[in-house]
């Protein structure tokens, strides 16, 4: 029997390599054989760790969704100011995009290939994430920390303004994750105007 | 012979209906027959107005690219403050997305199906648009109107924060184009903070 610890590591390795392949070649363009090759395993023995390509996609998407959701809920439940909460949420998005780039890209783009039931579950987690994020904005407006504005407009502007980083960022850019977080927080919280 | 005026109108009609079909079914999923049917023409007589599906895609993409480029260059060349220039550029994006929604969506998403040479031309127009936009931001920073920050980060944050509107906006939303422009300008120029 494969020891549990090794099994978990192998699974993680399979997910990591699969994320990169899905990102580069698309979910449809990647076969279990390609994944096995990258991981350095026989395709047959990979099935000891994972059932199918569908299962790999599910694990990647829900892992990322869970990372966002857990961190948002931790932030929302602190006593920090709404400004600080928003800064921390922006940081979560940028950190995940930079440190788990391939998996975030798969979760953002390939979730539509999830099987029907899982796709519905994924969409409902995303909706609920948006609702919780909107609630932080709404409360921040009520508290007088944020300008009063259409909550959906504010929410989607923020979410969308964070999306390009996934496509643009690479370690060779002359800006660190911290500087990016600082600049994005500044634009969204205080604007481009001096 | 078909009078020139009617010919231009027919061509416009073909582009309008083709944009909607490309947006709904994708460029690959739409045939010349589908377009002819929507326009209410025989496929054979449509070829009096347009050579191919590739030509339709080209006309749509370059029409939109031209609309953005012309307006940006007009705005950049005025004596307005940089804040006002930025507001006007934001307005151009939102107006085009709202009033020419299907064509903008095709230009944003289906340009990758342009033929090689045209695709390169299109990409270089986009690059040059981004450079001109970046120049407005850079000059605004130098003038002291805008905060000093990484120009690429500011540019892509703005461009990306305007993209979601294309997917979200429909006339049934309880917000007008003017209100959207106002809110987006406020967030980007002055931030969410009070």
Automatic annotation (TrEMBL), chains A, B:
<keyword id="KW-0805">Transcription regulation</keyword>
<dbReference type="InterPro" id="IPR036271">
    <property type="entry name" value="Tet_transcr_reg_TetR-rel_C_sf"/>
</dbReference>
<keyword id="KW-0238">DNA-binding</keyword>
<feature type="domain" description="HTH tetR-type">
    <location>
        <begin position="8"/>
        <end position="68"/>
    </location>
</feature>
<dbReference type="InterPro" id="IPR041490">
    <property type="entry name" value="KstR2_TetR_C"/>
</dbReference>
<dbReference type="Pfam" id="PF17932">
    <property type="entry name" value="TetR_C_24"/>
</dbReference>
<keyword id="KW-0804">Transcription</keyword>
<dbReference type="InterPro" id="IPR009057">
    <property type="entry name" value="Homeodomain-like_sf"/>
</dbReference>
<dbReference type="Pfam" id="PF00440">
    <property type="entry name" value="TetR_N"/>
</dbReference>
<feature type="DNA-binding region" description="H-T-H motif">
    <location>
        <begin position="31"/>
        <end position="50"/>
    </location>
</feature>
<dbReference type="InterPro" id="IPR050109">
    <property type="entry name" value="HTH-type_TetR-like_transc_reg"/>
</dbReference>
<dbReference type="GO" id="GO:0000976">
    <property type="term" value="F:transcription cis-regulatory region binding"/>
</dbReference>
<dbReference type="GO" id="GO:0003700">
    <property type="term" value="F:DNA-binding transcription factor activity"/>
</dbReference>
<protein>
    <submittedName>
        <fullName>Transcriptional regulator, TetR family</fullName>
    </submittedName>
</protein>
<dbReference type="InterPro" id="IPR001647">
    <property type="entry name" value="HTH_TetR"/>
</dbReference>
